[in-house]
Amino acid sequence: MSTRPYCIDLREKVMNFIKAGNSQKEASRVFGINKMTINRWHFRYKSKGRCRPKIRVGAKQTIKKESFIQYQSFRYQIRRYCP
């Protein structure tokens, strides 16, 4: 299973292929994409008018450099006064 979404350009090509009168099964064979994937794209295209990928949530942003420096300074002070 791929972890990256298919590009929007490919999705639009598939939707145009289907709008031209071809079936989802035929699109699956021509483009080498699973039929259920094309079915989801087509459903999303019919309901929302577009077939863009869903927004993916990734890992939280890493700590900012200034915050890390401040934290390191605080740790140093604690170690200095509380051995």
UniProtKB/TrEMBL annotation:
<dbReference type="InterPro" id="IPR002622">
    <property type="entry name" value="Transposase_14"/>
</dbReference>
<dbReference type="InterPro" id="IPR036388">
    <property type="entry name" value="WH-like_DNA-bd_sf"/>
</dbReference>
<dbReference type="Pfam" id="PF01710">
    <property type="entry name" value="HTH_Tnp_IS630"/>
</dbReference>
<protein>
    <submittedName>
        <fullName>Transposase</fullName>
    </submittedName>
</protein>
<feature type="domain" description="Transposase Synechocystis PCC 6803">
    <location>
        <begin position="6"/>
        <end position="46"/>
    </location>
</feature>
<dbReference type="InterPro" id="IPR009057">
    <property type="entry name" value="Homeodomain-like_sf"/>
</dbReference>
